[in-house]
Design a protein that fits this description.
about 325 residues; alpha/beta; 9 helices; 13 strands
Length: about 325
């Protein structure tokens, strides 16, 4: 038996790939980029000299976590949307001195591993992981019911969502945390296009490998026969939508099957695999306000490449 094909396929993955490849503009949701190999490659991307977001956001947190703490006060329950496996979480926790830390993630294994690592680094801190999809309102642990809450959503992950879905997520976060709570969110900014293109199409080819790994995953998990050499990684700046798009472009006419379904693509046709939205100064405010969050303060680096924003969940009010 072919060992690669023994992997049990996720029915949601199959449904998304079959529907996405058959769509008039072929596209596969970006979340499927992150199997084990994809997650390893993304970690590698964050260490590339061309990929500025991770190091810029970390440097901002190192420089301004004291100011953030002064604005939000101590003893908050910090609720992180994502498992907190990055080096950024300890920087915030050290400054805030929280009463509890609640990481929320859909992937239980990942969540438990990173929760254990953080608990070891902060002995005495109540670490209360919640396995859930944070796109919807979540019931937080009763132990933090009375504590003031500070949401944490670093990494500019919000940029991977189209604005309508980003607003849905920010609204769900507000419902989860409650009125009066605060949110520290990382958002990537609009900048010179060559800088953006280098970050998403690095000369070492790590981002290309990350993107092409999706085809490898489809072949392995969904009984596909996509010839990998028929596709190349493309990163393009879509100015109208203010986003970097990742595509897989057919370099020749190609036909293949996935789970028994037949597909054909002409040379130059693409499969759209990811969006990474970039925001201007006013854009980020508008996005947050659309979901009921008012901006308290924004910190940015000297080049204005990345922003960390502190926002507050506003009560609904009459508007003219
Ligand atoms: C996870 N996310 C914030 C990354 C980004 O920059 O949009 C994903 C990524 N894709 C290619 N490089 C990095």
């Amino acid at each position: 038996m072919d060992v690669q094909r023994a992997v049990v396929a996720d029915p949601a993955f199959r449904a998304d790939v079959l529907a996405g490849l058959a769509a008039p503009i072929p596209a596969v949701p970006a979340r499927w980029l992150y199997d084990r190999r994809g997650s390893e490659l993304f970690e590698e991307i964050t260490r590339l000299p061309e990929y500025y977001p991770t190091r810029t956001e970390k440097a901002l947190l190192e420089r301004y976590s004291g100011e953030i703490a002064a604005l939000v006060g101590q003893g908050e329950a910090v609720v992180e949307f994502g498992s907190g496996s990055s080096a950024k979480t300890p920087i915030l926790l050290r400054a805030i001195d929280p009463s509890a830390y609640v990481p929320i993630d859909i992937s239980g294994d990942f969540l438990r591993d990173s929760a254990e690592a953080l608990a070891a680094e902060f002995p005495g801190l109540a670490v209360l992981p919640v396995e859930a999809d944070f796109m919807r309102r979540i019931e937080l642990p009763p132990a933090i019911a009375a504590a003031p809450k500070l949401g944490f959503f670093p990494g500019s992950t919000i940029g991977n969502l189209v604005p309508r879905t980003a607003v849905d997520l920010l609204r769900a976060m507000k419902e989860t945390l409650g009125e009066g709570s605060r949110l520290v969110i990382g958002m990537d900014r609009i900048k010179d296009v060559p800088v953006l293109l280098r970050a998403y199409d690095d000369p070492a080819g790590v981002t290309a490998a990350f993107n092409l790994n999706l085809l490898h995953r489809i072949n392995a998990e969904l009984d596909g026969d996509i010839p990998l050499d028929a596709f190349r990684h493309r990163a393009i700046w879509n100015d109208e939508m203010s986003r970097i798009e990742m595509h897989l472009e057919a370099v020749r006419d190609v036909a293949f099957t996935v789970s028994g379904a037949h597909f054909a693509m002409k040379k130059g046709a693409t499969i759209h695999t990811e969006n990474s939205h970039k925001y201007g100064h006013r854009d980020s405010r508008l996005l947050l306000r659309a979901a009921g969050w008012g901006v308290v303060h924004e910190w940015t680096d000297d080049e204005r490449w990345f922003s960390i924003i502190l926002a507050e969940a506003e009560p609904p009010r009459f508007a003219p």
